[in-house]
Amino acid sequence: MSYKTINEYFEKIMLLLENSNQKDDKFYKAALNKFVFSEVNGINLGFSETNVGAGFGKKLSKQVMSDAFDIVKAGSKQPEIFQLVGLFEENVAADRLSDMIATLILPDIRRYTLRINKELGITQEKYTSLEIKNGIVINPYKQCELLYLPEEILHELPIAKCWDDIDRVILENQIIRNEINEIVGDTWKKLASSDKKAYLKNYIFKDSEKCQRVIEGYCNEEIGIYSKTSDMDYYIADVFRQIKKSGLLDFLQHSNNKEIDSMNVAFMVLDTFKDWVENNKGWEQILASPKQQREKAVQKLIQLSGKYICKSHDYDFTFEANEGPGPADIKISRGDKDKTVIEVKLNSNPNYIHGYEEQINLYSKAEDTRKSVYAYIKVEDHPICDKRMVEIYQKHKQEDVNAPELYVIDSQEKVSASKVK
């Protein structure tokens, strides 16, 4: 229903442009007057980097309409062209596109929000602390309507993560890539981003046959259901917000001991992370991340909390997630004399022994320090591996008191106390 509304709206604009003879007659002006989309602040999909939507200003609207006129006169009249406007128009990205679509289906969004509130019994009488106008909750932080969208409509962006990322568009969209290769081939790589958009506009969208093929490919694109774990940067940032919300970092407000050394700070970082994982259900978030990215997710989460802790104790925190030769995962230091390196490995990593016996020692030598900690994270049931890791650690400590310290964090699924017999 909403998709039909969107296409019908742009079909009307296309019809006006088709009947227009020049870019200042009444049909053209009528089309331009319909291409007005304000900011929609109540949905909070997160595309915009600001607290408000982007919308289309007069200058940008005129530019889009001018290009749409040229495309229509070249023989293309598909309404989906406006859904792909970010591919050929400067200053149009996902934030503006989301506002454009939200403006068109705002009545549907409000009806959906009202229905959900009614089903959940969200009324002014029951929730006196909330401000509710016409059946819709007012967001107390942004002073705008709190609007809902059904989770099932959230999908991966069909063309690119960022609509300005033209190279990724070409890489992932077979139809457009074929059209580009047919004409320019390797010279595409030499073009600036703005030149690439201009090229797509002039040689793809203004060519009716090529434009038709691109639109057909777009309409037939299989779009995966959106999962927040598919965007690891977003997922990690969201999880870290939960860590801060849990209060585990609140102790930093009262912690000002500047005399502890880098090893103490390293253990403080790992203790905080361990507390979150084992005692605050952090293991659920770690196990929810994709297996192939789980180790990097753990490293990144330790980094985010570690930066907070190191800053409060006047220590530098260096993070460099890696999978082989290179700097250590984490370095905590103050000047050139006091340095501790931390290597992070999951017990699902087949190189967990190599990490302890070889990698971390190489990193320690490279940093000219004897202070090192090997963080061993248990994410899978590997009792033999876990036992062997402890035995290797004990053997090395007997041979060398300065051998890397072993720090174990149990991130395996925990059985609810109510289920324990």
Question: Helix and strand layout, with pairings?
Answer:
Layout: H1 2-19, H2 26-34, H3 58-73, H4 94-104, H5 106-120, E1 132-133, E2 136-139, E3 144-145, H6 166-172, H7 174-183, H8 193-205, H9 208-219, H10 232-245, H11 262-279, H12 282-288, H13 294-312, E4 316-319, E5 330-334, E6 338-346, H14 352-367, E7 371-378, H15 383-399, E8 405-410
Parallel strand pairs: 6-7, 7-8
Antiparallel strand pairs: 1-2, 2-3, 4-5, 5-6
What does this protein structure show overall?
Helices cover 48% and strands 10% of the residues. The longest helix is centred in the C-terminal third of the chain and has 19 residues. It starts with a helix and ends in an 11-residue tail after the last strand. The strands form two sheets. It has a five-stranded mixed sheet with strand order 4-5-6-7-8, sandwiched between helices. A three-stranded antiparallel sheet has the order 1-2-3. It is elongated and about 90 Å long. It has 421 residues and is α/β, with parallel strands linked by helices. Helix 6 packs across helix 7 and helix 7 runs antiparallel to helix 9.
Following the backbone from N to C, one meets helices and strands in this order, namely: HHHHHEEEHHHHHHHHEEEHEHE
* Overall pLDDT level: 82
N-to-C CA distance: 52 Å
Strand tally, please? 8
The radius of gyration is: 28 Å
Counted by DSSP, the helix tally is 15
Roughly how much helix do the residues carry, as a percent range? Answer: 40-55%
* Backbone shape: elongated
Low-confidence runs: 47-53, 157-165
Percent in strands: 5-15%
Across the major sheet, the strand order is 4-5-6-7-8
Main pleated sheet: 5 strands, mixed
Structural class, please?
Answer: alpha/beta
